[in-house]
Amino acid sequence: MFSVIIPGRPCLTDIVAVDTQPNGQSTKFAFNFPLAPHFSEIVVFFLPGTVLPPDTAAAIYIQYPGADFRFIGALANEKPSSVIKVSPPRRTESQDEDQMLDAGGMNGDNSSMVATLGISIEPVQVVAPQLAALEAETGSGSVAGNELVRQTPQQRGISTKVLAQRIIGSAFNFLASFSESSDPMRGGQEVVPLKAFQDWWTKFERRVNADPTFLERQDPTANG
């Protein structure tokens, strides 16, 4: 389901299922990898074809030797990959001296120290507050800005019907100035050149790309 890349190292694929549910599926996974050589980023991503159950997210935790697991990020169907900054412990000078005194290397070194990356599939309602707390801790807006769930218009307090009315209103107001009467012999109905509609759509699409939520505000401009 998941894979991990530590810059400068081969891609990690040796994922371990930590638990097995009655249906035979697992919700908790782990990767183990050495702390050496030192790294400061981890890339976690879905393998092709991976889709999480609705209203869930993949919470990401890391554990260094002698420490507890710590939440560091999350993935979701709308956010299938993430580059996460980490701070693994470094060797101290005293540890280097101890290793030099141990000619046989029996005391171990950083290459034998292993970190564990845990991935747990959890309800979005559980993961989202952890992301918010992580953002507050790191002072980085990029953490909580990676939305776990793409909210529907209803969740944002606006109905699909209202959105449709605003889109139609935008088109009508823009195209009204281009209308002209047809041949009186054909009823004299007002017509709008096709190019006018194409111009409206280009302008409308450009605005959506620049400000995707403008239609969801209570008093959007209606000129497209």
From TrEMBL:
It comes from the Eukaryota. Signal peptide: none annotated. Transmembrane segments: none annotated. Residues 159-217 form the Hikeshi-like C-terminal domain. Residues 5-137 form the Hikeshi-like N-terminal domain. It holds the Pfam family Hikeshi-like_N. Belongs to the OPI10 family. This is DUF775-domain-containing protein. It comes from Aspergillus pseudoustus.
